[in-house]
Amino acid sequence: MELAGKHLVLGLTGGIACYKIAELTRLLVKAGATVQVVMTEAATQFITPVTMQALSGRPVYVSQWDARMPNNMPHIDLSREAHAIVIAPASTDFIAKLAHGMCDDLLSTLCVARDCPLLVVPAMNRQMWQNPATQRNVAQIRADGVEVLGPDSGSQACGEVGDGRMIEPEAAFEAICASFQPKILRGRRVLITAGPTFEPLDPVRGLTNRSSGKMGFALARAAAQAGADVHLVAGPVSLPTPWGVYREDVQTAQQMHDAVMQATPDAEIFIAVAAVADWRVDHAREHKIKKSSDALPAFNFIENPDILASVANLPNPPYCVGFAAESGDLDLHGEEKRRRKNVPLLIGNLGPLTFGRDDNEVVLFEASGRTPLPRADKQSLARTLIAEIAKRAPSGGSLLS
User: Fold this and answer.
1) For residue 281, what are the β-bridge partners?
2) Any idea of the CA torsion for 261, 265, 268, 274, to the nearest 10 degrees?
3) Per-residue pLDDT of the chain (401 residues; tens, 9 = 90+)
4) Contact 360, 380 (CB under 8 A)
5) d(CA 189, CA 365)
6) 232 neighbors 241 (Cβ within 8 angstroms)
7) What distance in Å separates the CA atoms of residue 400 and residue 339, rounded to the nearest whole number?
8) Distance CA 390, CA 68 (A)
9) Which fold has domain 189-392?
10) Strand segments (E) across 178-287
């Protein structure tokens, strides 16, 4: 599980966004974390401690004078085993307290007395967020090493629209998970392709493949969690965009090629995971092809551009990583494809056995030889692959091995 072994203190302050924390707590617990909820008195006006206790499975603390602690010091004891403290939602008032080191209740006191990372998830009216004092306070807590997650922009409970609303529970969960990952790609720019392409035959039919996009999206998520600036060019899939990733949707191989070539000058690492169609019809029909008993429709095919080879053969290419999904003889075809594409690293697997699955088993092919990796779920494997790529990719460009 993603957060197995992690102990989090989850602090709630007063705000209507408290209702979102019920779902965030559920996600954290489901991912294996133990969650100790601490609430301000104001937070109890929006959601009850009974609800949070039921969801977290642990007693909820509100008062700094709570005598359940043997030494009557919850502001010390509650944070000592925590891997992180998360304040969600974080009100304007509470952010001001953090900025000035004020501690007049249990939650603010344990934040000042902590010895672990602090993550803050703001939630407030747009004018409260834009207020110069709030902006100064947010800048101050960031300078103090506090990680600020959000806020989002959109409709607010007051009926107004703008910046200040709390990010959704799923986004907060993703950001919390990311906070525990080593930033081995901090500041690096990574371009990734994922999913299948779709080559139209007529307005309703087309050629595609069984690629789910799961591996490419897992790599995009892992790269973003490792601190990279990630640009994901995705074929037609229904997967949610990973937290912190810029996503560009395309349909055809030509569209993916054009998007990649436009983005490549800004990329330091290019990971070509997409299962790109090798061919397309030279002229897709303008209208739906009608079924006829007289003759079968005939098509003329032309070859699609080779995206990976196009990037790898630029005068100053990024560090290029290819993927090869083979149906057999992986060692032979994987190394042959690496040489033909002119890339330093190619990741091969038996595609028909892994399309759509949540796990995978791959082999790394490079000039120095082959390195098999054990079967793992795609997200764990993605983190392993990002670590392998980070070790190999030179800063600022590509050198063939």
Assistant:
1) 301
2) -10
3) 899 999 999 999 999 999 999 999 999 999 999 999 999 999 999 999 999 999 999 999 999 888 787 777 778 878 889 999 999 999 999 999 999 999 999 999 999 999 999 999 999 999 999 999 999 999 999 999 999 999 999 988 888 899 999 999 999 999 999 999 999 999 999 999 999 999 999 898 889 988 899 999 999 999 999 999 999 999 999 999 999 999 999 999 999 999 999 999 999 999 999 999 999 988 888 788 887 766 777 888 899 999 999 999 999 999 999 998 776 678 778 888 899 999 999 999 865 555 556 778 899 999 999 999 988 998 999 999 999 999 999 875 444 43
4) no
5) 23
6) yes
7) 10
8) 48
9) Rossmann fold (3.40.50)
10) 189-194, 199-200, 206-207, 229-234, 245-249, 269-272, 279-281
- β 161-165/152-155 pair status: antiparallel
Cα separation, 88 vs 120, whole angstroms? 6
Say whether 189-392 and 7-179 share the same fold: yes
Length of the chain: 401
Q: H or E segment at 161?
A: strand 161-165
Please, is 96 exposed, middle or buried when counting C-beta atoms within 10 Å of its C-beta (0-12, 13-18, 19+)?
A: middle
**Are 207 and 233 within 8 A, CB to CB?**
no
**Would the CA dihedral through 77, 82, 85, 88 be positive or negative?**
negative
Q: Which residues pair with 229 in a beta bridge?
A: 189
Please give the Cα distance from 7 to 346 (Å, whole number): 38
Q: Which two three-digit tokens encode residue 387?
A: 């670590």
Q: Is the dihedral of CA 67, 70, 72, 78 positive or negative?
A: negative
Residue 158 among the catalytic residues: yes
> Tokens 């607010």 — which residue?
156
Spatial distance between the Cα atoms of 93 and 41, rounded to a whole number of angstroms? 13
Task: Find the helix or strand (DSSP H, E) in which 167 lies.
Answer: none
Closest CA to 274 of 182, 358, 177, 209: 209
Residue spans per domain, the chain: 7-179, 189-392
Helix (H) or strand (E) run with residue 89 in it: strand 84-90
Q: Exactly one of 111, 116, 158, 320 is catalytic; which is it? A: 158
Place of tokens 């004020």: 102
Domain 7-179 sits in CATH 1.10.1200.10: no
